[in-house]
Design brief:
This protein is an alpha/beta fold. It has two domains: 186 residues, 4-Layer Sandwich (Metallo-beta-lactamase, Chain A); 134 residues, Rossmann fold. Strands 6-5-4-3-2-1-19 form a seven-stranded mixed beta sheet, with no helix packed on it. A hairpin with a 7-residue loop joins strand 7 and strand 8. The N and C termini lie close together (5 Å). The structure holds zinc ion. The site of zinc ion (ZN) has 4 residues, from loops. Zinc ion (ZN) binds next to loops.
């Protein structure tokens, strides 16, 4: 028998004497913790000594981010790759429960999209869970951005590519590396560190010059070059200095759907490239799971649950649920 316990922080699941807390669910120290992926908002509360169920890349990324733990597994649940970043997975109890984690349903040249499986209960993310988040064709957006970047480099300008240091930055390099071959490329140290783990798992990312105090003066000199910087670039003096000297910056995010996004992150251009499903992708995932019950966590939870109810699906936001044992499944 599978028992699902719900709380406003998340869901935990018990079967055969084992309890697993899903991402943020917390739970008692004796619980196994499932970590869907290594983004900081998902790993900040991992306790020292906690036993963790996750993929190998996730364990390595967590160690780089200062979270050390023993990896464990058990018989009744499996990890399903979910297309968000390297090592990210959904948590699946066959036929019973699917917890998506952050996911992306679109296939990419370097990574397959998430393929949801059938379950009676689904706990889904809803980062972009309102209709206005409709993402266009990724390859078209990339070639549009490349055209602008190529034009700037052709005129000996510096281009800054801003992205989340784990995941987004590596994906952008895999989109851009081939076309930008021949230009000097630099990467922020944390980006190059995560690049190495992608390479370790067979992803083809071209070597970049890691930005150091020694090579910064040369990086600041005029000339065509590409600089990969993290999403918090606007707080970095180097970013400010490069822009002062005429560099043009580009950001890539699902939030680019919002007109104010370039001002928010202080970039010159922004494009809709996301590691999450868009609104339609979220709906499609729920439909493919064909659940009896949907719980929505992360992002537009109320709105997305409402949309699903409008389509005749029994759905509620997890944030509205307080310590309830919800389901006994067998
Ligand atoms: Zn994430």
């Amino acid at each position: 028998m599978v028992r699902i316990r719900l709380g406003f922080k998340g869901a935990s699941i018990s079967a055969e004497g084992v309890t697993v807390a899903l991402d943020h669910a917390g739970g008692e120290a004796s619980c196994i913790r499932f970590v869907s992926h290594a983004h900081s908002d998902h790993i900040s509360d991992i306790r020292a000594g906690q036993r963790v169920f996750c993929s190998d890349p996730t364990k390595i990324f967590c160690a780089i981010r200062g979270k050390f733990f023993d990896k464990t597994s058990f018989g009744w649940a499996s990890l399903i790759p979910n297309g968000h970043i390297l090592g990210s997975t959904a948590f699946y109890v066959p036929g019973e429960l699917l917890y998506t984690g952050d996911f992306n349903d679109r296939d990419r040249p370097f990574q397959d999209g998430f393929r949801p499986l059938q379950a009676k209960v689904i706990v889904t993310e809803a980062t972009f869970g309102v209709r206005k988040f409709k993402f266009g064709k990724e390859e078209e957006t990339i070639s549009e951005a490349l055209e602008r970047i190529g034009d700037l480099l052709g005129r000996d300008k510096c281009v800054i590519i801003v992205g989340y240091p784990l995941g987004k930055s590596q994906h952008l390099q895999m989109f851009f590396d081939q076309q930008l071959e021949g230009f000097r490329c630099y990467a922020w140290p944390s980006i190059e560190t995560y690049n190495d783990i992608y390479r370790l798992f067979g992803k083809n990312i071209r070597e970049k010059e890691k930005i150091t105090a020694e090579n910064t003066p040369e990086l600041l000199e005029a000339g065509a070059r590409v600089v990969y910087m993290p999403s918090y670039a606007k707080r970095l003096p180097l970013y400010e200095e490069l822009r002062k000297r005429g560099a043009t910056s580009f950001a890539f995010s699902g939030w680019s759907v919002l007109d104010q996004y370039p001002q928010m992150v202080e970039v010159d251009h922004s494009y809709v490239i996301s590691d999450h499903a868009d609104f339609e992708g979220l709906v499609k995932c729920v439909e493919m799971t064909n659940p009896e019950k949907v719980y929505v966590t992360h992002g537009f939870t109320d709105e997305f649950a409402k949309t699903l109810r409008g389509r005749g699906i029994d759905a509620e936001p997890l944030s509205g649920v307080h310590n309830r044992i919800s389901h006994f499944l067998d």
